[in-house]
Amino acid sequence: MRRLSCLVALLTFGGPAAAADPDVVVYGGTAGGVAAAVQVARMGKSVVLIEPGQHIGGLTSGGLGWTDSGNKAVIGGVAREFYQRLKKHYDADASWVHEKRDGYKFYRKDEDALWAFEPKIAEKVLRDMLAEAKVTVAFGERLDRAKGVKLDGKRIASMATESGKVFAGKVFIDATYEGDLMAAAGVSYAVGREANKEHGETMNGVARKWNRHTHRFVAKVDPYVKPGDPKSGLLFGIDADPLPADGEADKRLQAYCFRMCMTDVEANRVPFEKPVDFDEAKYELLFRNFEAGDLRVPMKPDRMPNGKTDTNNNFAVSTDFIGQNYKYPDASYAERERIVAAHLSYQKGLMWALQNHPRVPEKVRTQMKPWGLAKDEFTDTGHWPHQLYIREARRLVGDHVQSEQDCTRKRETPMSVGMGSYNMDSHNCARYVTPEGFVQNEGDVQESPGGPYRISYKAIVPKAGECPNLFVPVCVSSTHIAYGSIRMEPVFMVLGQSAATAAVIAIDDNIDVQKVDYDKLRTRLVADKQVLEFDAPKRSDAVDTKKLPGVVVDDADAEVKGFESVSSSSTPFVGAGYRHDSAKDRGKQSAKFVADLPAAGRYEVRLAYTPNANRATAVPVAVTHKDGTASVTVNQQKPPPLAGQWVSLGTFEFEKGKAATVTITNDGVTDGHVIVDAVQWLPVK
């Protein structure tokens, strides 16, 4: 095998070839890998970035131009610099070829950054950043997963690629979506969904009950090859293996897809063609869903500059190839290539069918006809993205596993190295047959964490006692449901920079990565404009629960089924806002408020809500107390009589502890929105 000094297949941006055995080896040219490599170079250490393919940026340059970021205030450092550079690019008149800048509604002159962009521009900006930092990049070098990682004890001494090249270094950073270097180094990792009980969560594991958003079947679709005949077998895409109970673990993954860059600009449009391997049976669910009356166009084409899109999955049957990726994380390269090819074939066939197949309603075909692939994007891959959207694969298991408890800030997260804030977002993981005999999707979860949350340093390094010179800023230590929020490209860039900074400190101090001085790391991260903490500005019309008498439970702490819509448009409210039922799914939504009462006795129970003419007039509320349960009906159109915010539900006798509950539902509600804000227990003397 050849050492790095002998390499000839290296592209060095902006400078001479790197010396042999760099300080840091970054494997994976994702946006997170680029941020890591740039940070190492800026801190004065030598670095090589190894990319198995021929492109830089992963999904950031692979079609995901619609930045799912949550609160953008917590995106700092190299990540924010990237989005600021995009803004600078689009500030120039010459950047607008297929439309005028003033016609693009997401460009705002006075903002410092732009969060929607074309794939080729994203890759150009990332390459520019590498060039300025003089980072050496090795393209087309794929890890030899069987025998390429050489260990000195548990420390990585070197990694070899399939071509025979060897890359040695002091510290390694695995920035791939798959975690291949991590796995080859022998560290602990997980694949699939954990049971809720494992980490004290509520949204992990099998998730039938969370299936209440748009990405589900709303029409009754027969699942059998011969309609009505179970003996004829299930249609393609329906999982024959039974699902465990809700909240239990399994090895299923949220679905993958290609984030197509489409356009309806005729001069730049490449028509969708019928693939040679088109198999009509793979689209039977699509056709039957239309025929059952669901005429929603199953696309989400978010507009990018120059008449392009970032096209995402939408509704019951769309670009997500549900259930076809379970083997991907641990599969061989050859098997992965077959999985990727199957996804590409499916999506090509889907797009052709939506425009041309006679079983697709004419209305849908007409709406789809103007679209095609962008001619000036992905020119070396047939205008299809060079990167499949690997929404999750392996996940490190470190000494701190980020969980729902971290996302919702219900536990203290130690040693922050960055922040997330996007929804806990899992795409569907399976299709199954309901007890009623129809097909349904399973696994879709979209729940807000309620604001920014910390991500621990201990989530990007292996456990103490495992590999002492490896960072994992992409396949981070996280549960399935928490990863649904963390897995956003800006967060990967943030964590890549933080990992690189810690790598340099570990080298300078000659210590294991698990023993890096956090105070020293934090000081440098803050100096480099990383955001490690965030306190949302307090609104003058928000009531702080800590300033209220008695025992107050806010909606953020209630046990909620449904009530996923969060608002702060009407005032006053308790805490950060309130929830409502969107005036739908009657009888299926509930919010249970549990008080921890300091002493037994009589308490007046009050309910907070914001009144409005669109509220429900008969909201059912149940108060559980020492002597039973009292049922109360509240008209939420009327202004609350107590301080303009509260209505009394009555005075009751309660035991000490957590037996006191108030449950709000939308059972039997026939008009308006049901509002859920807060409940207060006031001791009565």
Give the proportion of residues in helices. Answer: 10-25%
Most strands sheet: 6 strands, mixed
- State the separation between the terminal residues, measured CA to CA: 83 Å
Strand content: 15-25%
- Please tally the helical runs, counting DSSP H or I stretches of 4 or more residues: 12
Write up this protein.
This protein has 685 residues and is an alpha+beta fold. It is 19% helix and 24% strand. It has 12 helices and 38 strands. The strands form 13 sheets. A 6-stranded mixed β-sheet has the order 1-4-3-2-8-24. A 5-stranded antiparallel β-sheet has the order 27-31-36-33-34, with no helix packed on it. Strands 26-38-32-35 form a 4-stranded antiparallel β-sheet, with no helix packed on it. The longest helix has 24 residues, at 333-356. The radius of gyration is 27 Å and the shape is globular. 50% of the residues are buried. The model is unreliable at 1-9 and 12-19 (pLDDT under 50).
Q: SSE layout and pairings?
A:
Elements: E1 10-12, E2 24-27, H1 31-42, E3 47-51, H2 77-91, H3 119-132, E4 136-139, E5 149-152, E6 155-160, E7 166-168, E8 171-174, H4 180-184, E9 189-190, H5 196-199, E10 224-226, E11 229-234, E12 262-263, E13 269-270, H6 284-291, E14 300-304, E15 308-312, H7 333-356, H8 362-368, E16 372-374, E17 395-396, H9 404-407, E18 416-420, E19 424-426, E20 430-433, E21 439-442, E22 445-447, E23 453-456, E24 470-471, H10 480-486, H11 489-509, H12 518-527, E25 542-543, E26 551-554, E27 559-561, E28 565-567, E29 573-574, E30 578-580, E31 590-597, E32 601-608, E33 619-625, E34 628-634, E35 646-654, E36 657-665, E37 675-676, E38 678-683
Parallel strand pairs: 2-3, 2-8, 3-4, 8-24, 25-29
Antiparallel strand pairs: 1-4, 5-6, 6-7, 9-17, 10-11, 12-16, 13-16, 14-15, 18-23, 19-22, 20-21, 26-38, 27-31, 28-30, 30-37, 31-36, 32-35, 32-38, 33-34, 33-36
